Amino acid sequence: MTVKSFFPVLAAALALAACAHNGTVTSASNIDPISLATAPPGAAPGTCWGKTVSPAVIETVTRKVLLQPAQISSDGRVQTPPIYKTETRQEVVQPRRETWYEIICEDDVTPDFIASVQRALEARGYYRGPITGEMDTATRAAIGRYQSAEGLESKALSIAAARKLGLIAVARDT
Prior knowledge:
Blueprint: H1 3-19, H2 33-36, E1 48-54, E2 57-68, E3 71-72, E4 78-80, E5 83-94, E6 97-103, H3 111-123, H4 137-149, H5 159-164
Antiparallel strand pairs: 1-6, 2-5, 3-4
């Protein structure tokens, strides 16, 4: 085969290879349905939810394991020292966690509501920007800082945080 005839054959082979199936199998059985869910199981209809995922914390642990104890003579002298083996392995210190939290539904997030959020966060020292009624980067960052102090790592305003800020009514027991 000459060099001139080799290049068209190579180009055709590469074009066919690009169209070939790459062997990746996508199956519904490989997807975690909880990860795709928009609400936790048992959530009330018409409610909106957010989810944070904390990755697992894994540590490398090294331990010495006794393989053979020391041989000690009757007078207390060590005849043969103990033999140890060093084992290193990874352990899950904290498992992966998914935390669901109820959020304000998108239809309820109006410019007036956002302006109220900005004022409430400003009053508590979390927001320093202008009151615009827009869910901008500064507002989301302030929401994230406020909720982080409350134990929730999210920039989506939770119902619990909105209640603490005095922005939505709290149901009373009658």
